[in-house]
Structure formats: C-alpha cells, structure tokens
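Components:
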Amino acid sequence: MKCWVYDGAMTMIFGIPVQAFLGQLLVGLINGSFYAMLSLGLAVIFGLLRVINFAHGALYMLGAFIGYLLLTRFGIGYWPALILSPLIVGGFGIVVERLALSRLYDIDPLYGLLFTFGLALVLEGVFRYYYGVSGSPYSVPPLLSGGTNLGFMFLPNYRGWVVVASMIVCFGTWALIEKTRLGSYLRAATENPRLVQAFGVNVPLLLTLTYGLGAALAGLAGVLAAPIYQVSPLMGSDLIIVVFAVVVVGGMGSILGAIVTGYMLGLAEGLTKVFYPEASNLVVFVIMAIVLLVRPAGLFGRDA
Amino acid sequence: MAELTLRERRAKSSAWLEWTLVGLGILALLVAPFFVYPIFLMKMLCFALFACAFNLLLGYTGLLSFGHATFFGGAAYFTAYAVKVWGWPPEAGILLGVLGAALLGLVMGFFAIRRQGIYFAMITLALSQMFFFFCVQASFTGGEDGIQGVPRGRLLGMLDLNVSMNIYYFVLAVFLIGVFAVWRIVNSPFGMILRSIRENENRAISLGYSVANYKLAAFVMSATLAGLAGALKAIVFQFATLTDVTWQMSGEVILMTLLGGIGTMVGPIIGASLVVGLENTLATSNFPVTIATGLTFMVCVLVFRRGIVGEVYARFLEPKADAKD
Amino acid sequence: MSDAAPLLAVRGLNAWYGESHALHGVDLEVFPGETVTLLGRNGVGKTTTLRAIVGLIRQRTGQIAFDGKDLMRLPLHRTAHQGIGLVPEERGIFATLTVDENLVLPPIVAEGGMSVEEIFDLFPNLKERRNSPGTRLSGGEQQMLAIARMLRTGVKMLLLDEPTEGLAPVIVQRIGDLLATMKKRGMTILLVEQNFRFASRVTDRFYLMEHGKVVAGFPVGELPDRMTLLHEVLGV
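Structure:
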C-alpha cells in the first residue's frame, strides 16, 4: 500500500504534507528530549534516595529563570548560562538535601513526595509573585539562530541543537552511572547503602551530590528550554505530571529505560498531534493506562 | 503511613471526653450561623467532608491519592450540569454527582491499585490530570468559564435552598451523615481489615484477604464521599470550574488532612477549617496562597507529621507514648 | 597468645534492634595476627556482634577499641578507614555491578593490600568472569569475591560472618586454605561460624556465645576437653 504520494505541489504522507508531518515529529522529538532529561533526573534521584522529586518541574523552571535573569540583570548570555544555571540549581538542590530531605530517608517515602510537593509550590509561588503567569521571552543565541534546509524539511538550528544536547546529556549521564567508578558507588549504594557505607564510602555525601546532580540536570533542561518555550513560572508544573506518567510507563528501575521512554513518548505525542490533535496531551496518559494493564512494572521496570 | 494507631491506644476515659467534645462540636455547628457568615461555614463543611473522605483512604488504608480533585470537581460538574441545564432538583443533582464520582473512583482505582506506594500516588496524579485535560476540552464543562449560575432550587420541592439558614442546615446534615458514614466504615470489620492493610499489606495478603479488592472498595468509598462534598459545593456556591479538578486542589486536600492529623477522625475537619480560614484571610492580603500552602507542607512533613489532632492525642492522652516518627 | 595489646578490644558491648535487647555486654579481645572464632547457636548475637563492632548497628553502648582508637564515636563510613572490614553473612555482592566493579568497590583504606592482578592470580576463576554481573557467580565464587575484595583494601582485620554457610565441602576447603594464607600474611580475623570443625582448622581461639553474651573462651587446643560444654551450648 502506498502511503506516500507525490501530489504535484507537495509530497504527502498518510494524507498530510510531509513538511507538516516531519514538523510535528520534530516537535515531538523536542518534547521527548525534555521528557527524557527530566525523567532521567527523577530516576537518578529516586533510585538512590527513594524520593519522588515533585520539585523537579520547579527546578527546571528555576533553571530557565536563572538563565533569563543572568541575561537581563547581568548581561550573561546563553552559553555561560548553560554552565552557570545548572551549577546554581544544583547548589540549591544540595542545600535542600542537606537541610531537609536527608531527614526524611528513614520514614515512609510518601513524605518525601509531600515535602518536594511543598517545595514546588513555594518555588512556583515565589516566581509567580514577581513575574505573574505570563511568559518572558528568551532569545535564541545568535550562533544557533536560523535554520538549515535538509531537503525533506527545514530544521530550525536551535531545535536541532536541543535534540543533540539532550542526547549528549542523557547518554553522558548514563555513561557516568553505568561505566565509571563513581557510578558503581551509586549503583551499589542503590542496592545496599549501609554495606557500602561500612566499606568506607561516604554514602550520605553521595546522596547529597546525587540530588544535586538531579537538580542540575533539571536546571540544564530549563536553560535549553528557555528559547523554545517562554520562561514562565508555570512551565514546570504541568510538565512534571507528564514526566511522572513517562516514568510510570518506563519503570523506575532503569536509567536507560527512562531516557528511551522519554523520547518515545515525545514522538508518540508528536504523531498524535498530526492525526488527532485534540488528543495529543492525553496520549501519554492513555499509554500509561495501557501499560498499567499489560505490564504494570513498566516497560523497562525492574521492581514489581 | 503505618505510624498512627493512636485510636487503638485510647483509654476508656478518653472515650467519654471524646464524645463530649463531639457533642459540643455539633452544638457549636448548630448555632454557628448566627455568629459566623454561613457561606464561609458551608465552605468549611464541604471541604471538611472532602478531607474526611480523603482520610479514609490515606489515614486508614494507607493509600496516598494525588487525584482526589477528580472526584470532588467531577461531581461538582455533574451536579452543576444536571441542576442548571437539565433543571433537576438539587437532591437529584447531588445524587448524580455522587454516582459520577463513584464511577470515576472505580475507573481510577482500578488502574492505580495495580501498583503500590509511590507509584500509586503518581498514577492517581496522572489520571487526574487526564481528567483535567478532558474537562478543559469537553463542552459540558463550559471550559475556562466553567458552569456558572447553578440554581439552588427547592430541596424535595419544599425547602427553598436560597435561604441561607435552610441551605446551611441542609449542608450540615449532609456533612454529619457523611462523617458518620466514614466513622462507621472505619469502625467496622471492613475498616479493621483496611487498617491491617495499612499496617502490613503483605501480612494481610498472607492471611488470605484479597487485598486488591479491599483497596479498590476503600478507594471507591472515598471517591464517593469526596464527590458528595463536591456536589454540595456546587449547589452552595452555584458554580463548578476547572479549579476544582486541578492537581493543586488534590494537593490542598492532602494538606488539610496532614495538617489536621492523618488517621484521626477529627483531624481532617480541623485541618480543612484551618486551611479554608487561612485562605480566606490571605485572599485579602498580598501574600500568595501557594507559598503559604507550600511552606505549611514543608514544615508539617519535617516537624509536624502527626498533625494538630495527632499531636494532641500524643501529648495529652498518651503521655508515655513513644515519640517515634 | 602474645603479650602485645589486643588489636580489637570489646568491653561491655550492648546493642538493640529497636526495642529488642540483642547484646547483653559482650567482652572479647583479638590480638594482632590471631584468628578468633565466635561460636554459638542461631540467634545468640554473633552476627549482631560483628555488625555492632563495625557500626552497622547504631543503638549500642560499651567500648570498642580498634588499634587504640575508639570506634563507638565514628560515623559508619569512617570505620573502614581505621583498618577494619566486614564480609557480611549475605556476602553483599551487588547485582548491578560486574565482578570487576564489585572487586574494586571497597576503597583502599591503607597500604599493604593486594593489587587487583595479585588477587586475580589468587582467584583465577574470578578473573575469567570479571565482566559478568556479580550475582551470576555461584555461591562459592561470590564468597570468594566477598573476601577477595577486602584483600585489596589494606585492612588489618577482617570480620567474617559465616563464610562457609551453604557451601559445598570442596569450596569450604578452599576457603579454609584462603583463611590460612591470609593468616600467614598477617591478617587478623574474627570469624563467626556454626561449623566449629572447620573453624578449628584455622582458628587460634574460640569464644562461645549464649543469650547475647560471651560465656566462655578457650584456645583451640582445649577444644576436645570442651566438647561437653559445646554440645550443651550449641545443642549439637
């Protein structure tokens, strides 16, 4: 069956202009990049700390705002912000872990969820107070402006960069965890933190740094997001719930699973937007419901 | 949340004290509208019922749902639509809202029960968000505007609910019935099994209980009563909007229960009253409500996990109790 | 028995699991280069003693002196750095780490440990499987790995919890040989064992535990004379 037709003026695929189809897929891939980065951070934090970081969306928002403030208050541009903002957000995360989260490890993990929920509300509330609910623009850095004609479609350079950067970040983090000595400490501490401590590894410090890393990943995603989506206090809160659904679909046990699921669900959203635009923000939840029926542990889940 | 079994440890003398306090409380509620603005009191009662319903699931079954706004707001929509668009009398509208909430509870519970603990919470959140998106787009909800101007009507064709005192006592009666229902459920054999599931689910399974069915039943009961609160709210305030089905609303009822005391009967009522009162006060000031809510959450989780009533029980009624948190 | 000061001196060690009082004042000493075995029935507190010494149990009182230093005040992650290491009963081989990663996980806390190459020479079967996930090894191999990785760290004393439990006689023999080799190289060992015949081949002294206390101590040579006591206390 031929789904691809050359309709004289423009090529059609599944009855839709190829440009539009690929355009939506690209949007899906971009969204998927953010789903992957954020669910990766959530999975890393959950794996070691057993805390569901509800504040992850707010940290993402914080990262974007710090990028925005660095530019508007200090004239510090995009490229330095890509380093500075995650560092600042990571530092903030370290403080939160030291002061509060570390006290919650020995009790029911739902309290960790509730605490980070409160933190998310506070962060969002503070920024809403000063910036309202409308977004502030953040311009694309000059180096990445414009687009490239790939022949079959026109690719805005910045969006291409986001996909590449997110893949680097995701697979870099994966490599850090799966292939390095530090990563082996993390993986061992996830399995049996007390024994690893008894061996002489400073596990409490490891926990702090892990939360900091997760926060920094969220902050980095925020800076990457700033030129695409407006910088708004609300940008994290609706995103975090979709990321939760991504994590339920992927299963929390696997870093690679979180990454792959993020990209896949982003693409699924993009595809849905092409054929059923009204359902596009529901599709991730629908997939979650199906996965729950068929494979409750998640696609890559290790724990039941 | 297996830490609070305070009720079980109560001595007989405290039972007398409790019943006296309950009696005084009811008395206070009966005369309150002569001193306090009835609309405010009714708001408190609706949310107190919502929180009690939620606590049935959290405090007594040990399940944290992050999606209870779906039942509360969903019932509000169903009731508002039935009463305004179809012209149903209020009692029928409320019944529809309650049944709708029960159905939503059955569906959400069915999916959520398949995982435990943290995942359960995340699934309820995600499904609730799905319902929110559905409400944004569905025509019957009126989208961003919601359903406004819901008539109060006449209860059973007789009692004009537009009169403040009439509707107040109606809401009070429904509230008392709802809380009584929760109390009966909690203190029944069924409730005992729920509590054993909260304490140690694996042991309950090994004892032969089909734990999933019990959890689902508790979930549906909780959703139904939450729906009752929402349906009432639609009649009292005469509107239903998207705010009622947001995750922020789900978070609010968790806060009310946490602040008041998870696993206590009176705790959610006190927590709800405090939160509603606090929001009222803050509404006129410049201080954002979300920050206050968030801070309260953080403080409660860190240093005040037993909540107000929980602390009272621990301090005054069980002075030798372990402070193990 | 040497005249030197004990490397490990435990006095009046009490420990609790929550409300349950598990150790009722354990006293024991281990001198440098010695191998000492803790004997006792299941549940008397042998594993608890090891865990309390290392600091895995925090509800504890009493004195624990290692190499002259007080272990009681140290946070858990500092104890190993004093030169004392634990090979737990459950072995603690990590499923998400390869054999190689498991081997180098415990950080080097002092000089004098073996290098990775030396360890692989001693354990060629581990070398073969170095890139397999740790839990794909057999029980005996996992036990070898659990002991081997401590040899890299340079610890002066090892606490070994039931190393022969559930293992075939051939492997038990190899572990006995391994312990003898370690002893020759100067390692001080505190061994928890149910199998006192195995232990008597490697140990210098025994302590007998009952109800959370040490009730008797004697050198290995006196074992035949103590059989009645052993049968009583161990119920063998």
